Amino acid sequence: MSVEVANETTADIELTEFAALARFVLDEMHVHPQAELFLHFIDEAEMAELHLKWLDLPGPTDVMSFPMDEVRPGKDSEQLSEGCLGDVVICPSVAAAQARDAGHSATEEMLLLATHGILHLLGFDHVEEKDEKVMFDLQRKLLLTFLAGR
């Protein structure tokens, strides 16, 4: 599984931890071992540009996902075709502010956002209430299982 993680900010981020999380999530979701994923940490100005360009919303947001190939999760030992999942971009400064409000660390917030973004790349969404429950329950289970194994 190819997972590339890049920090394009001045934030202190343990890139190996995020690569490990991404591999864990992709393994748990039975994604093909040849799948590719890119995880980028970007500053507020760049995130605001992406947010405006793609969602027509002003200001920076916490996380955005940009799917490439339509890679979907497999079931149990079945793995679907290989391909490039796409990119997940996270803004550490927005994540840090959210973490303060939520009462946990910025790293925990960014791990949550990375999990959330990867699930979006795999076709999960939270527009409808029933879909939100499925996605958020899965997101919570994946993240807590990963953190318990650290």
From TrEMBL:
Gene3D superfamilies linked: Metalloproteases ('zincins'), catalytic domain
Gene Ontology CC entries for this record: cytoplasm
UniProt key word ATP-binding: no
One of the Pfam families matching this protein, by short name: YbeY
Alphabetical GO biological process terms: rRNA processing
Record's keyword terms, sorted: Cytoplasm, Endonuclease, Hydrolase, Metal-binding, Nuclease, Ribosome biogenesis, rRNA processing, Zinc
Cofactor note: Binds 1 zinc ion.
Location(s), subcellular: Cytoplasm
Domain of life: Bacteria
UniProt cross-references to SUPFAM superfamilies, sorted A to Z: Metalloproteases ('zincins'), catalytic domain (SSF55486)
Function field: Single strand-specific metallo-endoribonuclease involved in late-stage 70S ribosome quality control and in maturation of the 3' terminus of the 16S rRNA.
Recorded family membership: Belongs to the endoribonuclease YbeY family.
Name under which the protein is recorded: Endoribonuclease YbeY
UniProt organism field: Bowdeniella nasicola
Gene: ybeY
